[in-house]
Specification:
Layout lengths: L1 E6 L4 E10 L5 E5 L5 E4 L5 E4 L2 H5 L5 E3 L14 E4 L4 E3 L3 E4 L2 H11 L6 E5 L8 E11 L2 E6 L5 E4 L5 E4 L3 H5 L4 E3 L14 E5 L2 E4 L4 E3 L2 H21 L3 E6 L7 E11 L2 E6 L5 E4 L6 E4 L2 H5 L5 E3 L14 E5 L2 E3 L28 E5 L3
Antiparallel strand pairs: 1-2, 1-9, 2-3, 3-4, 4-5, 5-6, 6-7, 7-8, 10-11, 10-18, 11-12, 12-13, 13-14, 14-15, 15-16, 16-17, 19-20, 19-27, 20-21, 21-22, 22-23, 23-24, 24-25, 25-26
Keywords: Signal
């Protein structure tokens, strides 16, 4: 028997196919084009898991509102979804065995005004996730969405672009860190294909920014991000050295922290000091902080002058240091060569190649 899940707020329209029975002799279905599962939980609820790991732990964010008491999923009338903090009954969720009902609901889906949107923005991980429409609020004639587990807001500006801000004040000021590249002309945010991010006062196009009304697609992309982050971290050098005269207490050797990933990148800690080299969530700059709390706040005393776009720290040509509230770059710098473990760097730099704050690395 084939079941079809209709869940506008979460998956869109999703077909699932019966795969067999679980350890409790209950039917078990798997998504036909995806990794989700429909299963009976040990406490008697029909539940949808996003992946094999959630299935193994009996987790899910969509389930029947009450224990099914032997009813099959398509015989259950009321379903609910979890928004990260609580369960809510959702009339938009339905399970059916009728292909005609499934196709009819899918055709009408585009006409729905979606209450939840999901943002994927690898350079701004603190803004990723679910956004909930504010039911009683409109700005400039358009709906407003608020991030469920963060400080993000999606809104329309005076000039008719969709903006994403990390503060509510950005709505009143028409300011944000992500924006549609063109006017939306009444199109919903998830119908926009081209997005950009603000970097040092100018807008940069970014094909990795993705906004959707389908939670499953967003989760698939985030999972792919995580897999790539693990590979990227494994490839990162085990040690880097920083030369920086303005902040001498941050100079020296930095060692990669095993299994630690922040915002999709490796993290290094200063040997014999407090420095932490990490990638911040404000557009992707390599940054050096001295406190773990500052890492979470995207703060630091040193950073590369431009977004790294995935390049490791030692490949960045220009670095800057914090002087009060100002970032300063200095070009006249003396290069210092070090010999960790008695061996020189495998890549030696001429003095003219070494910037004011230079990250270098060697194989040790």
């Amino acid at each position: 028997m084939i079941c079809f899940l209709i869940a506008f707020a979460a998956f869109g329209c999703t077909e699932v196919l019966q795969k067999g029975r679980d350890n409790w002799n209950q039917p078990l279905w798997r998504q036909l084009k995806g990794a989700s599962w429909l299963f009976s939980s040990p406490d008697g609820f029909w539940r949808f898991a996003n992946n094999d790991l959630e299935l193994a732990e009996h987790l899910g964010h969509i389930q029947s509102s009450e224990p099914h008491a032997g009813k099959l999923p398509h015989q259950v009338l009321q379903w609910q979804h979890h928004d990260g903090s609580a369960w809510y009954n959702d009339r938009g969720i339905k399970v059916t065995t009728s292909p005609n009902d499934f196709e009819a609901f899918c055709r009408s889906e585009d006409a729905e005004e979606h209450s939840s949107l999901w943002l994927v923005a690898p350079r701004f991980p603190q803004l990723q996730g679910e956004y909930r429409k504010q039911e009683t609020r409109k700005e400039r004639g358009q709906p407003v969405w608020r991030q469920v587990s963060g400080e993000g807001w999606i809104f329309s500006t005076n000039k008719g672009r969709w903006f994403i801000s990390d503060t509510e004040e950005g709505i009143a000021n028409n300011r944000g860190v992500l924006a549609s590249t063109t006017q939306h002309n009444g199109s919903a945010p998830y119908q926009i294909d081209q997005w950009q991010f603000l970097s040092q006062g100018s807008w940069q196009s970014d094909q990795t920014i993705f906004l959707t009304e389908k939670q499953a697609e967003a989760q698939r992309r985030v999972a792919e991000q995580q897999r790539e982050a693990v590979k990227r971290t494994d490839r990162a050098p085990d040690k880097v050295w920083i030369l920086c005269q303005p902040k001498p207490h941050l100079q020296g050797e930095y060692v990669k922290q095993p299994a630690r990933i922040e915002r999709g990148q490796a993290v290094w800690r200063q040997l014999g000091g407090n420095g932490i080299l990490y990638s911040n969530g404000l557009g992707g700059f390599w940054c050096v902080a001295t406190k773990e709390a500052d890492v979470q706040k995207n703060l630091g005393l040193l950073q590369c002058s431009t977004p790294h776009y995935g390049r490791p720290p030692h490949e960045m040509e220009s670095w800057q240091f914090a002087d009060g509230n100002t970032w300063r770059v200095h070009k006249n710098v003396r290069g210092e060569l070090k010999e960790p473990n008695g061996r020189p760097f495998t890549r030696l730099m001429r003095p003219s190649q070494i910037g004011y704050n230079r990250v270098m690395y060697g194989n040790v």
